[in-house]
Amino acid sequence: MHQITINTRKTEQFLEITDKIQQLVQESGLKNGLAFIFCPHTTCGLTINEHADPDVTADILTGLTRIVPVNQTFAHREGNSPAHIKASLMGSSVAVMVENGQLLLGTWQGIFLGEFDGPRTRRLWVKFIETDKD
Amino acid sequence: MHQITINTRKTEQFLEITDKIQQLVQESGLKNGLAFIFCPHTTCGLTINEHADPDVTADILTGLTRIVPVNQTFAHREGNSPAHIKASLMGSSVAVMVENGQLLLGTWQGIFLGEFDGPRTRRLWVKFIETDKD
Amino acid sequence: MHQITINTRKTEQFLEITDKIQQLVQESGLKNGLAFIFCPHTTCGLTINEHADPDVTADILTGLTRIVPVNQTFAHREGNSPAHIKASLMGSSVAVMVENGQLLLGTWQGIFLGEFDGPRTRRLWVKFIETDKD
C-alpha cells in the first residue's frame, strides 16, 4: 500500500491529486492495470470531475452545501454530520485505469480529494492492480 | 482498454448499457473476474439500478433534478454545473463481477449511463480484472 | 463469489458489515489485495463511514431523507422511488484494501449496508482480488 499526505487549507475544498497519483504510478513501475485510491477518513471523500476550470469544483462544493445545509440539526455531538453525509455522497474510493505507465483520464478530468471538515492533514492510500494490456 | 460509444438522445436520460458490457465480456474471453467500467466525461456518470420498470430510472432523473435544481446560480460560465454535480453524485465508474463469462447482476439490476448534459456522443472505457473462480 | 446474508430490521437503517467481511477475508486466505463488495439489490446500497458513534449513520439516514423526501410524487407504481434514488446516491459497491489478511480501514471507518426499503433479507456478494504486497 502506498500513501500520500495532503494538507487541506480550508473548511471545505476540492484539491486535485492527479499529479501525485501519476507520480506513484511511475514509481511503482506499473504498466497496465488500475490505480485504486482509498480515503481512510470519514469527513472527506474522492471524486473525478473537471479540472480545467476551477469554477466547476467550486460549484460542486456550492451544490453539496445546498443539498446538505450546515444549519440543520443532527444527533452527532461533534456537529460535523453534514461533512459525513457529503463524504458518503462522494464516496471513499475511486479507481482509474493505467496504460503504458500513464493514468487514463478523459480530456477534462482530474482526481480530487473533497475536504468537508478541514483544514486537516489527510492521508490517501493507493494500491495498484496489474492487468493484461487490454 | 476496450471502448464503447453511446449516442445519447436527450438533455438528460439514463441509458442501459448492460448488453454492450456483456458483449465485451464475451469478446474478451474472461471467465472469472471483474468488469471495470469508467466514464471519461465530466457531465455524465454511471450507476446500477432497476432496469425492469423504466419508471425507476426516470424517477432517479426526477429526483436528481429536485436535488440539484437547474435554475440555481453557479460560477462556471458554461452553465452546466448541475450536470457536473449530478455526475459526481452518481460516480465515474462501476464494477461488476463476472463468473463463467457472464456478468453477475441482481434480478432487477441493469448498468446505466446517466447523461446529464446531452445529447452527445459518449465513450465508456472497460477493463477486465481476472480473478480466481471464487 | 462469496455471499453473505443480512436480515434488515427496519424500513431504513445502516447496518455495519465490517466483521462479516473480515471473516470472509480470513476464510479465503487472502493476504494482500482488495475485497470487492457488491449489492445485488436496487433499494439498498453500500457506504463506508464512521462506526464509532452510531449517531453518524443515523444522521446520514436523516440527511438522505431530507435530500429525498418520502412525500414526493414519482412515476414508479411501487412507491419506493426514494429508496432507489438513495441506493444510487450511495452506490452498489465498495472496495477495501487487504494487507496481511486484514481489511485496511481508517481508525473511524466501518463498512455499512444502507437499507432504504426494508425490512428485508439482503444478500451481498464478495470477490477478492490478489495483488502484490505493495
Q: What order do the helices and strands come in, and which of them pair?
A:
The structure is a homotrimer of 134-residue chains.
Chain A: E1 2-7, E2 13-16, H1 18-28, E3 33-38, E4 44-50, H2 54-67, H3 81-90, E5 93-99, E6 102-103, E7 109-115, E8 121-130
Antiparallel strand pairs in A: 1-8, 2-7, 3-5, 3-8, 4-7, 5-6
List keywords for this structure.
alpha+beta; five-stranded antiparallel β-sheet; Jelly Rolls; homotrimer; 134 residues; three-stranded antiparallel β-sheet; elongated
* Mean residue pLDDT of chain A: 96
CATH class of chain A: Mainly Beta
CATH topology of chain A: Jelly Rolls
Inertia-based shape of chain A: elongated
N-end to C-end Cα span of chain A: 24 Å
What is the CA-based Rg of chain A, rounded? 16 Å
Q: Helical stretch count of chain A?
A: 3
In this structure, how is the largest beta sheet of chain A organized? 5 strands, antiparallel
The CATH homologous superfamily of chain A is termed YjbQ-like
What is the H/E string of chain A? Answer: EEHEEHHEEEE
Subunit organisation of the chains:
homotrimer
**Largest interface (C-beta under 8 Å):** A-B, 34 and 33 residues
Number of extended strands of chain A: 8
Strand content of chain A: 35-45%
